[in-house]
Design a protein that fits this description.
Helix 14 runs parallel beside helix 15 and helix 15 packs across helix 16. The C terminus is likely disordered. The strands form 4 sheets. This protein has a 7-stranded parallel β-sheet with strand order 8-7-6-9-10-11-12, with helices on both faces. It has a 6-stranded mixed β-sheet with strand order 14-13-15-16-17-18, covered by helices on one side. Strands 2-1-3-4-5 form a 5-stranded parallel β-sheet. It has 19 helices and 22 strands. The structure holds 1,4-dihydronicotinamide adenine dinucleotide and 2-oxo-3-(phosphonooxy)propanoic acid (HPV). 2-oxo-3-(phosphonooxy)propanoic acid (HPV) binds next to loops.
């Protein structure tokens, strides 16, 4: 049974799949103070939050069981991602689920700002019929500068166009071609400042965007500009904004998000030309149901099927690529487990990963992590996963290198993993054969063809007649059944290896007796922890 803690106000309807699931217990604590949360977080496998709960490194120190932090929304700046990554905790979000809500809120704010609706409402509701103080401006034929043309920025710009606005857009990922297709103009930040009547920001808060709209930027803007922020507090420097509004250079601002929330900046709150909402961009019935539905479904997938779609701290890949790479992911983990055992279970200092064939066309980041996780799992067991593998490797001072080769080694795809501890090197080469499953094709310098099984007996010996028979009958004498047997050698009469698949492991005593065979130099059982899962999937 997995325990899920839900803090912040999350839609009950949206959580239905988790609430109804027999393997999950959901507990809701929407107003838990941080100190209390610290005391209980250790009991939970998953945590669902919105923007209010601060998931800090300190909180995560007590989160010993936690495997998933789910942000029922987009922005993850309330979660210390690096701390979660170090602990191997997956951070997921629900990108796109609240796009329309935030888009419509932005337009509502822009229109309210242009027509002074909140101010007019307040006075009218107070019983005053004042028709002269609230003359507004039109959006029609005005220029809107959109900074951040992701999901929300794009939808805002599309709708603003329908008001007859001319759109200038800036985003490092926006191409001329896409801007043209959308009927907008790709512009620099400076051009947006010089030419816009309205500016709206839709970027995440990053080192790059913090203070993006500051005193210097505001000084470049057109006199009378109106500014909207429904993205993140901190992208606009509040002090500089208030100053520019007080001076009359900026006509007004509409803010849904603030440097510090809840906002208490009196200068800002009391300015008649600044309209505010308390971070309501995503607060629609539809968006709240959708974000909760998406993270609930993903939590179930992660715990029940080990499948991850929207992790913030993992490489993303399309479902199609993931399906294509799936058998390689499993094999990669096994190669990692095998190679470290071949290195006599000593910690590696250097790892070399080589990809050949069609694989080089794919995004292999996840595959690389899988190979590295396989290696580390021998010593670190369950504390290593795909999330923290790179961090742990760095922490252990192990370097790794990935090379993609345009050749194919005779197979559609081929992977080679080489691990060294400074003195010795162990190598495994493997592929997945269409219709036949995974095959280990190389161990160190020897060519073989072995299906990865739970127990592999690896023997190094002199290439002399009778060796296979001796090993076979000795194992038979000890009631050990052999599944398959493969030999590999580099030259006739030289050194050779034998790899047998066994139905069960061997005792230390049988290994000892095997080593007494004349010409047998090494005997070692290589065990694969993940092979049962592999069988199920075949
Ligand atoms: N007020 C609210 O309740 C809500 C706020 N948001 C916030 O809105 C923002 C946008 O969300 P989405 O559109 O869903 O995200 P998105 O990821 O689709 O778009 C963000 C865009 O910002 C661009 N960007 C990053 N750095 C930039 C820079 N220095 N200059 C210009 N562009 C830059 C990215 O390239 C990307 O295209 C986020 O900060 C999100 O947290 C989202 C939903 C609700
Ligand atoms: O999704 C986002 O980025 C938001 O800012 C929405 O925040 P909320 O879930 O309403 O606290």
């Amino acid at each position: 049974m997995y325990k899920v803690l839900v803090t912040d106000g999350i839609s009950h309807t949206g959580l239905k799949s988790l609430l109804d699931h027999p393997n999950f217990v959901v507990e809701r604590q929407p107003t838990l103070p941080t100190e209390e949360l610290k005391k209980v977080i250790g009991d939970y496998d998953a945590l669902i939050v919105r923007s209010q709960t601060k998931v800090t490194e300190e909180l995560l120190l007590s989160a010993d069981k936690l495997r998933v932090i789910a942000r029922a929304g987009v922005g993850v700046d309330n979660i210390e991602i690096n701390a979660a990554t170090r602990k191997g905790i997956i951070v997921i979000n629900a990108p796109g689920a609240n796009t329309m809500a935030a888009t419509e809120h932005t337009l509502a704010m822009m229109l309210s700002l242009a027509r002074k609706i909140p101010q007019a409402h307040q006075k009218t509701a107070a019983g005053e019929w004042d028709r002269s103080s609230f003359k507004g401006v039109e959006l029609y034929k005005k220029t809107l500068g959109v900074i951040g043309m992701g999901k929300i920025g794009t939808e805002v710009a599309k709708r603003a166009k329908s008001f007859g606005m001319n759109i200038l857009a800036f985003d490092p990922y926006l191409t001329e071609e896409r801007a043209k297709k959308l009927g907008m103009t790709k512009a620099s930040l400076d051009i947006i400042a010089h030419e816009s009547d309205f500016i709206t920001v839709h970027t995440p808060l990053t080192n790059d965007t913090r203070g993006l709209i500051n005193e210097e930027y505001l000084s470049k803007t057109k006199k009378g500009v109106r500014i909207v922020n429904c993205a993140r507090g901190g992208i606009i420097e509040e002090k500089a904004l208030v100053k520019a509004i007080q001076s009359g250079h900026v006509a007004g601002a509409a803010l849904d998000v603030f440097e510090k929330e809840p906002v208490a900046n009196a200068e800002l709150l009391q300015n008649p030309n600044i309209i505010v909402t308390p971070h309501l961009g995503a607060s629609t019935v539809e968006a709240q149901e959708k974000v909760a539905e998406e993270v609930s479904a993903e939590i179930i997938e992660i715990f029940e099927k080990q499948s991850i779609q929207n992790a913030v701290n993992m490489p993303q890949m399309s479902g199609e690529t993931q399906a294509k790479l799936q058998p390689y992911l499993l094999l990669g983990d096994q190669m990692g487990q095998l190679v470290i055992q071949l290195l006599n279970k000593q910690a590696p200092s250097n790892i070399e990963i080589n990809y050949y064939g069609n694989l080089i066309e794919e995004d292999t980041e996840l595959l690389t992590r899988t190979l590295l996780k396989g290696i580390l799992s021998y010593h670190l067991s369950d504390s290593v996963n795909l999330i923290n593998a790179l961090h742990l490797l760095k922490e252990q001072g192990v370097s790794y290198n990935v090379v993609k080769h345009p050749t194919n080694k005779g197979f559609a795809n081929y992977m080679e993993l080489s691990v060294s501890n400074g003195q010795e090197t162990a190598k495994i080469g493997a592929t997945v054969l269409n219709g036949y499953g995974a095959r280990i094709l190389k161990i160190n310098q020897y060519r073989i063809d072995v299906r990865p099984e739970k127990y592999l007996l690896y023997i190094k010996h002199r290439d002399v007649p009778g060796m296979i028979g001796k090993v076979g009958s000795l194992l038979g004498d000890h009631d050990i059944n052999i599944g398959t047997m493969q030999v590999g050698r580099t030259e006739v009469g030289g050194e050779a290896i034998m790899v047998l698949t066994l139905d069960r492991t061997l005792s230390a005593n049988v290994i000892k007796v095997l080593k007494l065979i004349d010409g047998l130099q090494e005997a070692q059982v290589l065990e694969l922890a993940t092979v049962d899962a592999a069988r199920e999937r075949r």
